[in-house]
Amino acid sequence: MSQQDKEIKLKQKIIRRFHKALSRYDLIADGDKILVGVSGGKDSLCLLEMMAMRMKIQRPAFTVEAVHIRMSNIQYETDTKYLQTFAEECGVPIHIVTTGFEKQENSRKPSCFLCSWHRRKQMFNLAQELGCNKIALGHHMDDIIHTALMNQFFQGQFATMPAKLTMKKMPLTIIRPLCMEIESDIALYARMRGYEKQVKLCPFETASHRSDIRKIYEEAERINPEVRYSIWNALETAGKLIE
Fold first, then answer.
1. Suppose 132 and one of 33, 101, 172, 230 were both cysteines; which one would form an S-S bond, judging by CB atoms 3.0 to 4.6 Å apart?
2. Is residue 153 helix, strand or coil?
3. Mean pLDDT, rounded, for 190-194
4. Per-position b or e across 188-201, b if 16+ CB within 10 A of its CB
5. Separation between Cα atoms, residue 49 and residue 175, nearest integer Å
6. Closest alpha carbon to 123 in 46, 69, 80
7. Is residue 4 scored above 90 in pLDDT?
8. Is residue 208 very low, low, confident or very high in pLDDT (cuts 50, 70, 90)?
């Protein structure tokens, strides 16, 4: 099989799972205006590409805009010119927003939490300013499963990031259209498509419980290659993927 045939086959697999997730969890409807969060990593670039392709299909009729949020005091960098070019090629307008936060010495909140909270705040504000009713994030199946395991190990509860979450305090719904995608497939697709990597990665991304959970999950997959589908079925049965 040629390299081109491999890329076509992988793209078809990703698109098939993408459409399955949209249908299964009722993620997109006629009239939706969706803001896509673009971090600059492989997952968010894949999400933007998939959403842009789906937008060109007439039913359901929806529109997409994108946002990339830069943190002024966290030392990771993305090439905003590349992101702007990528979004332009997808036919999607992109907004570049810069924000930051001050970490108090007596704060019990870790930097990762504060960074995430301030980025989400900017995203929620922009979505409402633009008249968007949904925000699409690039979390894939592995992210969702890892979060479920983290909540069990450290919070004592069976919960995760749902594929669809209707916000209670604002007129927004969070959707995760890549929720049925496997991270390794996205990584391979990103290499085949030539996605550019971030200039600098987040300095805190390896110093977290998520990295430890990933190792535990990889060992579980070695023991049972079908473990992801067992956990996913448990999440669906418990009603944790739509809230």
1. 33
2. helix
3. 94
4. bbbeeeebeebeee
5. 16
6. 69
7. no
8. low
Tens-digit pLDDT profile for residues 129-146? 999 999 999 999 999 999
Q: What is the DSSP letter of 176?
A: -
Q: Where do the H-state alpha helices sit in the chain?
A: 3-24, 42-55, 80-90, 111-130, 141-150, 183-193, 209-223, 227-237
Q: Helix, strand, or coil here: 141? A: helix
Question: Smallest Cα–Cα separation from 149: which of 222, 232, 224?
Answer: 232
- The C-alpha atoms of residue 38 and residue 80 are separated, in whole angstroms, by 11
- Count the neighbouring beta carbons within 10 Å of the beta carbon of residue 141: 23
Can you tell me the mean pLDDT for 193-219? Answer: 79
pTM here is 0.93
Q: Give, for 164, the enclosing helix (H) or strand (E).
A: strand 164-166
Residue entry with tokens 């039913």: 59
For the purposes of burial, counting CB atoms within 10 Å of the CB of 58, is it exposed (0-12), middle (13-18) or buried (19 or more)?
exposed
**Lowest mean pLDDT, pick from 3-17, 136-150, 220-234:** 3-17
Token pair recorded at residue 93:
């307008």
- β-strand pairing of 173-175 with 164-166: antiparallel
- Above 80 in pLDDT, residue 79? yes
What type of residue is 193?
R
Q: Dump the DSSP string for 190-206.
A: HHHHTPPPPSB--TTTT
